[in-house]
Amino acid sequence: MSSDDPAPAYPFTRDVGLTIDQRYRQLLHERPVSRVTLPYGGEAWLGAGPRGEPDRAGPRPAGEELSVLVVAAPAPARMLVFGAVDFAAAVAHAGRFLGYRVTVCDARPVFATPRRFPGAHEVVVDWPHRYLAAEAAAGRVDARTVVCVLTHDARFDVPVLRHALDLPLAYVGAMGSRRTAEDRRRRLREAGVTETALARLHAPIGLDLGGQTPEETAVSIAAEIVAVRRGGGGAPLSRRSGRIHADAPG
C-alpha cells in the first residue's frame, strides 16, 4: 500500500484480507494503524503454514482461516512549544525526555533556529495559530498532544490559544505572570472563547516548585503535564496516605 493511499477504517483489511478479532477492535480505534509494512517478499507469509513457512503451492484457499499477529506502534505523542524564547529550549529538552516528539514554532526566523533548540525534533518558522490550524487539519495532532505557549505576546498568544482550546488536546498551558494571565483570559473571552474552554487553560503554566531558572521552570511545566495526564494532584507523597501508584486504567 502506498503511503499516499487513503486509509480505510481498518487500513490493512482491504489490502490483505484480514478479519479483525473483536477483542482488538477497541485497541485499534484508540491507536489507529496508518498502514501495514511487510518485509520484502512478505506477501508470501499470508499464505504460510503453521510453522511460518511460505506455501509453495500458491495462495491459501479462499475462506480458509489464518491467524496473524499485527502489532500497532503508534507515533509518539507531540509537544508543541510556541515561542522561541530561552525557556523554550529547556521545555523542549524536558518534553523529549518524557518521550514527546517536540516542535518549537515561532514566526520570527531570527529566533526560531535549530541551533538554539537542539532538544527539539523540529523548529518551524510560522505564525503559531496558522501552524496549529494546519497541523490539526492534517490530522497530526490528537488527544495526546500537549501545547505550551511561552511567547508573552498577545499577538501570538491569543490566536493560538483560541484555536488550541477548541481542539481536544491533552494539555494547554501558557506562560506569564498572574496579571498577564488575567489579561490574556479577558482577551480570549472577547475573542469568543467560552468559560468551559478557558477552564482547560493552565495559566500561569506549571506547578509551584519555587523554580527560578529556565531548567527549573521546565521541570515544573513537565510535572504539571504528567499530573494532568495521569490524574495526579501534585502534592508531596510524604503528605499523603494510601497507595502511591493508582491502578492502571482498564
Kindly identify the CATH topology of the largest domain. Answer: Rossmann fold
Question: Approximately what portion of the residues adopt beta-strand conformation?
Answer: 5-15%
> Which value, in Å, is the CA radius of gyration?
23 Å
Structural class: alpha/beta
CATH hierarchy class name of the largest domain:
Alpha Beta
Q: Please count the beta strands (DSSP E, at least 2 residues each).
A: 6
Q: Treating each run of at least 4 consecutive H or I residues as one helix, how many helices?
A: 8
CATH architecture of the largest domain: 3-Layer(aba) Sandwich
Major beta sheet, strand line-up: 3-2-1-4-5-6
The major β-sheet equals: 6 strands, parallel
What is the number of domains?
2
Terminal CA distance reads 33 Å
Nutshell version of this structure?
This protein has 250 residues and is α/β, with parallel strands linked by helices.
What does this structure look like?
There is one protein chain. The chain has about 250 residues and is of the alpha/beta class. The protein folds into 2 domains: about 1-75, no CATH class; about 80-230, 3-Layer(aba) Sandwich (Rossmann fold), CATH 3.40.50.720. About 30% of the residues lie in helices and about 10% in strands. The protein is built from 8 helices and 6 strands. A 6-stranded parallel β-sheet has the order 3-2-1-4-5-6, sandwiched between helices. Helix 3 crosses helix 8 and helix 4 (about 130-135) packs parallel to helix 5. The two termini are about 35 Å apart. Residues about 1-20 and about 20-55 have low confidence and may be disordered.
